[in-house]
Design a protein that fits this description.
With 205 residues, the chain is of the alpha/beta class. It has one domain: Uracil-DNA Glycosylase, subunit E. Helix content is 44%, strand content 11%. It has a five-stranded mixed sheet with strand order 2-1-3-5-4, sandwiched between helices. The longest helix is centred in the middle third of the chain and has 18 residues. One of its GO terms (biological process) is DNA repair. GO terms for molecular function: 4 iron, 4 sulfur cluster binding; deaminated base DNA N-glycosylase activity; metal ion binding.
């Protein structure tokens, strides 16, 4: 137990002190918790997240936690039981429309943190949120959101067998979420999440 605690805190220290990517802005943001059987994976923090010290802390978070509230999971309960990871842990800066997409090199630089969290927690369920997060789990690089959102998938990730249920990014710039197809797929995905045995065990038993 003592070794696991020190392993976890060493990971946090490495994450918080990481400055590998010169184009990233601000300091790393994390939603790590010491014990979890569920991991969510976002894309990267937005411009406000560092100020609040947690992922999905601003407008996209309101949408995301509004989705979870539909299936009976409140924000603070989610944050206390789910290890909230991300593909990249620092704010990438702004692009012409929305936030800049992290480069492949930045994704690679940050991948050690997600790998550690998967190996450490050995989750039963992963919830990737947004296309960049889904890209880390899917083998087919050419897909549409409607091909995956609403489905449940299984794979081995970093030596751990996991189920994964994707969600689209809850950004207001993601117009797909407001289409009839998008709304139906999101509802299907939320139902799949609600009915997953690990969700039931974590939140409802």
């Amino acid at each position: 137990m003592k070794n696991r605690k020190s392993e976890y805190f060493n990971h946090l220290n490495r994450l918080i002190s990481c400055r590998k990517c010169p184009k990233m802005q601000g300091n790393p943001v994390h939603g790590c918790i010491p014990s979890a059987k569920i991991i969510s994976i976002g894309q990267a923090p937005g411009i406000h997240e560092e100020r609040f010290g947690k992922p999905f802390a601003y407008t996209a978070g309101k949408t995301l936690f509004g989705w979870f509230k539909r299936i009976g999971i409140e924000e603070e309960t989610f944050r206390s039981k789910v290890n909230m990871s991300a593909v990249c842990r620092c704010f990438p800066g702004k692009a012409k429309s929305g936030d800049r997409k992290p480069s492949p090199e930045e994704v690679q630089n940050c991948s050690e943190f997600l790998e550690f969290e998967v190996r450490f927690h050995k989750p039963k369920l992963i919830i990737p949120i947004g296309k960049l997060a889904i890209d880390q789990l899917i083998d087919n690089v050419k897909y549409k959101l409607e091909d995956v959102v609403g489905g449940i998938f299984s794979r081995e990730l970093h030596g751990v067998s996991v189920d994964w249920i994707p969600l689209p990014h809850p950004s207001g710039l993601n117009v797909w979420n407001h289409t009839e197809t998008g709304k139906a797929c999101i509802q299907k995905a939320l139902k799949k999440i609600q009915n997953h045995p690990t969700i039931k065990e974590t939140f409802f038993i």
